[in-house]
Amino acid sequence: MSETISGGHLVAKALKAEGVEVIYTLCGGHIIDIYDGCVDEGIEVIDVRHEQVAAHAADGYARITGKPGCAVVTAGPGTTDAVTGVANAYRAESPMLLIGGQGALSQHKMGSLQDLPHVDMMAPITKFAATVPSTERVADIVSMAFRECYHGAPGPSFLEIPRDVLDAKVPIERARIPETGRYRASTRQAGDPEAIERLADLLAHAEKPAILLGSQVWTCRATDAAIDFVRTLNVPAYMNGSGRGTLAPGDPHHFQLSRRYAFTEADLIIIVGTPFDFRMGYGKRLSPTATVVQIDLDYRTVGKNRDIDLGIVGDAGLILSAAAQAASGRIGDAAAKRKAWIEELRTVETQAYEKRLPRQHSDAQPIDPYRLVHEINEFLTEDTIYIGDGGDIVTFSGQVVQPKSPGHWMDPGPLGTLGVGTAFAMAAKQARRDKEVLCLFGDGAFSLTGWDFETMVRFDLPFIGIVGNNSSMNQIRYGQAAKYGEDRARVGNTLGDIRYGEFAKLLGGHGEEVRDPADIRPALERARESGKPSLINVWVDPEVYAPGTMNQTMYK
Length: 556
Description:
By secondary structure, this protein is α/β, with parallel strands linked by helices. It folds into 3 domains: 4-174, Rossmann fold, CATH 3.40.50; 193-350, 3-Layer(aba) Sandwich (Rossmann fold), CATH 3.40.50; 362-551, Thiamin diphosphate (ThDP)-binding fold, Pyr/PP domains (Rossmann fold), CATH 3.40.50. It contains 24 helices and 19 strands. Helix 3 runs parallel beside helix 5 (83-92). The radius of gyration is 24 Å and the shape is globular.
C-alpha cells in the first residue's frame, strides 16, 4: 500500500521547509487538518482571540526574525477579520503568508458555510493570491506563495484552501513537496555598477551630505554596512521605521531632532528604503537644490512623487557597502572637512533637545506625555524591543524614544494601523524569549485588540505594556477642534476612564495605575520584575498634543 498524506499535512511540511516555527490562528472547521500537520512537524500553534491579531502577529514575527510569518484562519469572517493585518503588512513590506479556509470544491457556488470570494478580496493587498485547486498541489503552491513574498520589496501572500482539498489524502509520491533551500533563489540585488560609481563620485565631492536609513536597512539586515558607510565617509545619519536603532544613541553619526534642518541645508541627500509618502511630505521636505539619491528594493518606489538625481534598485546592504568601498579611495580629505557640517547639525540637535527637556522632566499632573516617553526611554536596555501602538502618544515617543540596538523598534508602518501592539508583542516575545519586550499603547489602540492580553498570559509571554491614557482618541480630537471648534471637538472620539491596570490583573497579568510622574519608573521596574504580561496605566494630560499631531497635513 502506498503511503498517503493529507492536504493539511502537506501545508505543514511546506511551512517546515520554509523555516516557519509557529502559526498564529483562530480555530475553524475548515482548517483543523493544518493543526494536525503542524503537531507532527513540530510547528507551534498559538491560538488568539481575533483573526486580526493572528495576521498582525505573523507580520510582527517576520519583522523580528527575518523569516516569513504565517497566520491560518477559517473561511468567510475569519478571513475578512484578517484583512487589516494583511493590508498593514502590505504597506509595511513585511513577508507573511495568510492561509484561509474555503468551502469544499464539491460545493463551489452552492452557498456553502462562510463562502466568500477571498482571492478577489485579497488580490489588491498582497503580492500573490490564489486558490489551491487540488491536494497534490498544496505544498507546491505554498512554496510558490513564499517565493512571491520576496519578489522585489517583501510583502504578504494569501492562499485559500478548500476544505475537501485539505482533508483529502493522496499518495505521497504524487505530491510535490519542495525541499528546504531548493525552491527559491537569492533575491539580493547588488544594484547597477555604473550607478554605484556615480554615487561614489557624488559622495566624494559632497560638502554637506546626509542619509536617511529606512525600514529596508533592517529588512535587508544591512546594519553593519550602514554603520561602515556613515563612519567611513563621515555622513550624518537619520533613521526612521525599522531602521531606528541602526546606530546606537550617542554615536557621533546618530542624529534625530535636526532632520528638517539637515534636509534643508544638505547638498547631497541619500534616501534608503523609504518611499516619498506622507511621512516624507511626498518628497517636498527635501531641499530643491540638493542632489537626491534614492535606494530601494522596489523600482516602483524610486522617483515616485518626486524627481531624483539618481535611483538605485537593490539590496541596501550590498549597495551601501559597494558605494563606501568605491568612494573611500577617491574621497581624499573630504570626509575630514565634513567635521564642521557634523558640528553644525549637532548644535541644532542640542538646541532642540534642550528646548524640550523641561517638559521631559515635568512634575505636572495629569502627566505630561513627554515625561512618560522620557521615562520609557531611560528605562530601555540594549535588549528591549520597543513597540509603539497608538496615535498622539506614540507620536510623542517618536521624538524621544531611541532603541539601543538594531531591529528593536516596531511600529505599524505607513498604513497607520492601531491595534498592532499586543500582536507584535506576542510575536516578538515568542520569537525572541531572550529579549525584553515593551509596548506603549494609546488607550484607544489597546482597546481594539486588548483581549489578546489573555493570550499572552496563557502562553506565558511576559512583556511590559504601558497605556498612555487620556480617555480620548486625541489625535483625531485635535483635528476636529482645529476644523470645527472646541464645542465640537469631542464628537465621536471620547472614551471612558478605564483602569487598564485592573483589566490586566483580571486576565492574570500584572497591572498598576499611575497618576504621579514620580511613580512611573518604580511601576516599570515592578512590571519588569513581575515576569508576567503587564499593563501600567498612566493617566496623561488630555489637553496637550504632540507636535507631529498638530503638523499633520490632513488637518491643514
